[in-house]
Design a protein that fits this description.
Layout lengths: L9 H4 L9 H6 L22 H13 L6 H8 L3 H5 L6 H20 L3
Length: 114
């Protein structure tokens, strides 16, 4: 078919400059970031994982504990700490939470639990 065209010469239609890579070169080449962790997003609509695989992943995730950030752990110990870390005055609610927490600790000490 390429020889019967009257639009251009044979060089236009033939892939003389296109060459396949040799198998020996493919085996020696480094893989580019193959199999990176977290490469699949759980809610990616274009992900081609089967429904069974998605369900298995969700069952596995239910058993995993939720990660808690360092700031969240610090705020559980002292409710006013996040505001103080950011250079702000703690909110009224945070101050009340700190007072309640302190009162509860005193009550537990009186009872001998803590």
């Amino acid at each position: 078919m390429s020889g019967t065209s009257s639009v251009g010469g044979r060089g236009v239609y033939e892939a003389g400059d296109q060459r396949n890579v040799k198998d020996s070169e493919i085996k020696q080449a480094d893989r580019y970031k193959e199999g990176q962790p977290n490469s699949h997003l759980a809610n990616d609509s274009k992900d081609e994982r089967s429904i069974a695989n998605k369900l298995a992943r969700e069952e596995k995730r239910e058993k995993e504990p939720e990660p808690i950030s360092q700031e969240a752990r610090d705020s559980q110990a002292d409710p006013t700490l996040p505001a103080k870390k950011h250079g702000n005055e703690p909110s009224k609610g945070a101050k009340i939470d700190a007072e309640i927490q302190q009162e509860e600790e005193e009550m537990l000490k009186k009872k001998g639990i803590k």
